[in-house]
Amino acid sequence: MVSKPMTSQLSRVKEYVGRVVSGNVTTLSKIATLFEVKDFNSLLGANNLPLDTPPSQSVAVNATVKIPFTCSCNNGTGISDKSPTYKVKTGDFLDHIARDIFSLLFTYQEIAAVNNISNPDLIDDGQLLWIPLPCSCDNLDGDQVFHYAHVVRRAHGDGDVETLDMIARELGVTVESILKLNDGKEEPDPETFLDVPLRACKSTVSNNTSPDFPLLVPNGTYALTANNCIRCKCDYYNKNSTLHCEPSPSEVKVQNWQQCPSVRCISSGVEANGSSYALGQRSFIDNTGCNETRCAYTGYNNRSRTISASLVNGSICPGEYRNHILFNLLPG
Question: Is the pLDDT of residue 227 over 70?
Fold first, then answer.
């Protein structure tokens, strides 16, 4: 994965890594524990699974599970943010940990390097290892993207290796975008990973004081934000498609706050006549069925315990997306 100069500031971004289940059938709970996914809902959202999916849900052999994690970026270089960790068990060795436990998301040499292990053949029972998940901070054509580390598989068991075209079609991206982030390598090697820039819906969170800024959510997934009060879903219509956010279902447990604040968008102007919109509510502004007005989520503030939203309008039809804030928030 290539790291190019991006910024001199330290930042943390959300990314996915794909783990191919090998050996035996496992469960979502075991995967979450192995990768230290603290919020189980984030694992469900990354794989577009219903929020009522139980942790005991089984995952079949050879299935790929997207793992959400945080990448720490500094001067264009990324590394997983001190998580996950792995406690060495009797009989473990670094290549076994890299190959069999973490499905070749990294090499044993990389484990040794980040843990300052001079002799990879000497590790101790109970030793705690920092696991270096593949991580990227590269922009694509000047835009921030949602990175996904895809492990290159063999297409038919021990047969041919996946091609870039196969990977691009599976993940809904272009071959060109993969090439740009991987030094233009057209024939990937098996058991290595590619940095894949997933298409992501753009949010209307424009204020970097909101803890979830800039809130990128990949196509075909959802994410909970604002202390689990808001669920944002991405169904990618076109290049500039935006997120659809609405209050989370009542069964979702709120974090940090006692309860979720109410929020509505109140329109202004003579023609608007003070119309009130619930978060996520939309109405069409002409008879084409393309142009809409929508009450869009724009961020939250932990100190004031508020959630903000604004009325925006734009097109939901293919083509250039026009999206701009029309009115300011009036909390409900």
Answer: yes
Contact of 53 with 44, CB cutoff 8 Å: yes
Quote the tokens at residue 183: 């030094």
Distance CA 199, CA 207 (A): 22
Sequential DSSP letters for 67-111: EEEEEEEETTEEEE-S--EEE--TT--HHHIIIIISTTSS-HHHH
pTM: 0.82
Element holding 128 (H helix, E strand): strand 128-130
Q: Measuring CA to CA, how many Å separate 227 from each of 231, 254, 261, 307, 326?
A: 10, 6, 11, 10, 26
Q: Confirm if 146 and 198 have CB atoms less than 8 A apart.
A: yes
What is the torsional sign of CA 152, 153, 155, 161?
A: positive
Q: Which residues of 191-200 are buried (b: 16+ CB within 10 A; e: fewer)?
A: eebbbbbbbb
| DSSP codes joined into one string, 227-286 | TTTEEEE----STT-B-EEEEPPTTSPP-SSSSPPP-EEE--STTTTT-EEETT-EEESS
Residues in Cβ contact with 291 at an 8 Å cutoff, skipping those fewer than 6 apart: 284, 285, 313, 314, 315, 316
pLDDT in tens, 264-277: 898 765 445 567 88
